[in-house]
Design goal:
The complex is a heterodimer of chains A (117) and B (109).
Chain A (H helix, E strand, L loop, with lengths): L3 E4 L2 E4 L5 E7 L6 E7 L6 E7 L5 E2 L8 E7 L2 E6 L8 E10 L4 E5 L3 E5 L1
Parallel strand pairs in A: 2-11
Antiparallel strand pairs in A: 1-3, 3-8, 4-5, 4-9, 5-6, 7-8, 9-10, 9-11
Chain B lengths: L2 E3 L3 E5 L4 E8 L6 E6 L6 E6 L3 E5 L2 E6 L4 E6 L8 E8 L5 E3 L3 E6 L1
Parallel strand pairs in B: 2-11
Antiparallel strand pairs in B: 1-3, 3-8, 4-5, 4-9, 6-7, 7-8, 9-10, 9-11
The chains are: A mainly beta (117), B mainly beta (109).
């Protein structure tokens, strides 16, 4: 159980275009989803926390107008990279949180590799 | 500030035992996670500690000392497939994970 999918798994786009990445929790409802970015040989960097039905909370230094997050349902969050540039090329990973009274865990999607030409 | 420290890289021999340390300083604490990440893939969950002590799960064990802000991941009977990065992450009580930079483990035959 607790499977998270991401689509697409990889995408190549031209500079200036927008790219949408979907993150779905397949067998559980996730009130909170997280979006991370990872550059080569670096650790995960949290971009934003997304709660269903409310605006995402962005980490310092992450442009909310460039990285649009929509969490319309308990099983789907989307990240749109607007007007992508080569420096946006990275590995984008989402996670969906399953919280309990004494346990909490994030389940990760397989990631989306974005290459901007 | 909040930070998590772990060694950048470690090398071990197939069949041996290796211990990866993690020290943390966070604003709050609601559990420590270890994840394994192979190159080009998303992290996969290995272990979760919220109370002091050792949690054993097959070839992998994880230890936590909250008073010392310290954890380690112990890998036994190393296999070549264990070559990966190992990420230490702390839940700071606000449902966010604070991530270490990861330890790249290289297994040699």
């Amino acid at each position: 159980g607790a499977v998270v999918s991401q689509h697409p798994s990889w995408v190549i786009c031209k500079s200036g275009t927008s790219v949408k990445i979907e993150c779905r929790s397949l067998d559980f409802q996730a009130t909170t989803m997280f979006w991370y970015r990872q550059f080569p040989k670096q650790s995960l960097m949290l971009m934003a926390t997304s709660n269903e039905g409310s605006k995402a909370t962005y980490e310092q230094g992450v442009e909310k107008d460039k990285f649009l997050i929509n969490h319309a349902s308990l099983t789907l969050s989307t990240l749109t990279v607007t007007s992508a540039h080569p420096e946006d090329s990275s590995f984008y990973i989402c996670s969906a949180a399953l919280f309990g009274a004494d346990y909490n865990e994030q389940f990760f999607g397989p990631g989306t590799r974005l290459t901007v030409l | 500030g909040q930070n998590i420290d772990q060694p950048t890289e470690m090398t071990a021999t197939e069949g041996a035992i290796v211990q990866i340390n993690c020290t943390y300083q966070t604003s709050g604490f609601n559990g420590l996670f270890w994840y394994q990440q192979h190159a080009g893939e998303a992290p996969t969950f290995l272990s979760y500690n919220v109370l002091d002590g050792l949690e054993e799960k097959g070839r992998f064990s994880s230890f936590l000392s909250r008073s010392k802000g310290y954890s380690y991941l112990l890998l036994k009977e190393l296999q070549m497939k264990d070559s990966a990065s190992y990420l230490c992450a702390v839940n700071n009580g606000n449902y966010q994970l604070i991530w270490g930079a990861g330890t790249k483990l290289i297994i040699k035959p």
